[in-house]
Amino acid sequence: xxxxxxxxxxxxxxxKPILKGxxxxxxxxxxxxxxxxxxxxxxxxxxxxxxxxxxxxTGGSATLDGRDLLAMAPHERAAAGxxxxxxxxxxxxxxxxxxxxxxxxxxxxxxxxxxxLSGGAFLKLAREKAALLKLDPDMLKRPxxxxxxxxxxxxxxxxxxxxxxxxxxILDETDSGLDIDALKVCGEGINAIMRRPDKAVLLITHYQxxxxxxKPDFVHVLAGGRIVRSGGPELALELEEQGYEALVA
Amino acid sequence: MTALLPTRHDEAWRYADxxxxxxxxxxxPETIVLAPGEQGTRTLVIDGAxxxxxxxxxxxxxxxxxxxxxxxxxxxxxxLRVTLARGSRFHLGAAQIAGGEQTVxxxxxxxxxxxxxxxxxxxxxxxxxxxxxxxxxxVVVDRGAVGTDGEQSIRAxxxxxxxxxxxxxxxxxxxxxxxxxxxxxIGELDANALFYLASRGxxxxxxxxxxxxxxxAEAFVGAADEERLTAAAVAALETVL
Lengths: 249, 241
Prior knowledge:
The complex is a heterodimer of chains A (249) and B (241).
Chain A lengths: L1 E12 L2 E12 L3 E5 L6 H9 L4 E10 L2 E2 L5 H6 L2 E4 L6 E5 H15 L7 H14 L10 E2 L5 H15 L3 E5 L7 H15 L5 E5 L13 E6 L2 E6 L2 H15 L1
Parallel strand pairs in A: 3-10, 3-11, 6-9, 9-10
Antiparallel strand pairs in A: 1-2, 1-4, 4-5, 7-8, 11-12
Chain B lengths: L17 H5 L7 E5 L4 E8 L3 E9 L4 E8 L5 E9 L4 E10 L4 E10 L5 E10 L4 E10 L7 E10 L5 E10 L5 E9 L3 H9 L4 H17 L5 H15 L1
Parallel strand pairs in B: 1-3, 2-4, 3-5, 4-6, 5-7, 6-8, 7-9, 8-10, 9-11, 10-12
């Protein structure tokens, strides 16, 4: 069954049209990759689905698990099961990772009518997910992303994903800024957390290398605000070999 | 002491709520004196309306830490006049929270009268609605007060464009070989950070509260009753968000 259905999505950022009728359907249990040249609208797609202010939808629709995603506020989308992995995770001085994530998880649970997780149970969960991503659990005591290296920020994003346990993860260039070892750890983390029959992933990436670890079921090429080609994993290899220009033209 | 009500011509009262002041005027000044080498702390939480006028004198090598949460309902003012002897140390950590049409203010004059004294002032303000938050702070370094180390860090967060922050750090230096720094910033909550928090499922009001709590906490660092101050600040934030 389709978990995410995007139909003819169009939007504007600062009055400029970016997405121009994008359609995409992702079933539960699937991993999709979106590739494309710079400026194609890849990050815009992620932010628009996340509900970032300033990314104004001008047409089309998007549903998550049958619910109208675009009608929800950003925090409601998260509670509905959407996770957005940021290309540039934001630093928040003074707010500890633990405090932030516990508040986030319990806000999501509350909106779903579930009991909040106790401090002890939360810490156990957080340590378990940090271990999965080989992130020093002491980093969770530090302010959100402050003083984290590029690789630590990305691994911390995956730890957050593990804790929040979303239905759909949209990961915006999770591979950027990662060395080879961290790339492998993140890739394995994504598989362990999200490779489930009831979950799905949309990976946004420039390069094939992340896809060596997280094998996509489908690959799409985004150019000029639309999906211009779709195929299996072999499409990513073809892109790597020939570049976008040959395929997009 | 004069019993005449101040006017706006008086710099220290320039942004004050003079109408509210009238009902409590004249204000009896309070005096705190620390003997040489003595250490002291004081915490002041204003949650009603209050006007405080406090003179603090530190003897040689004395240390005094003053923490304030000014979340007045109505007019709340704390005026401090601090005189520092040789090698003494004064710390002010103050948070002001106001909404509606309230005025809250901190007015300080810190006089480095002798060499090698240290003063630190950290003021954080959260202002909503049509509230006004003021910090008027003068640091005076007297002739001969070499080795002075004075610092003022003043920041205000405006939750609404209709709120006002007046921040005026001032230095009057009559000695050489002194170190005086002041930093002052007035801004709004970072929209990127708010979206990041929202994207994890935190509702807007909780996200703001979380960030503002962290912002205000800088004023309470090192306070003996940091937890009580933080809890009171969180409660006050709820009334302006």
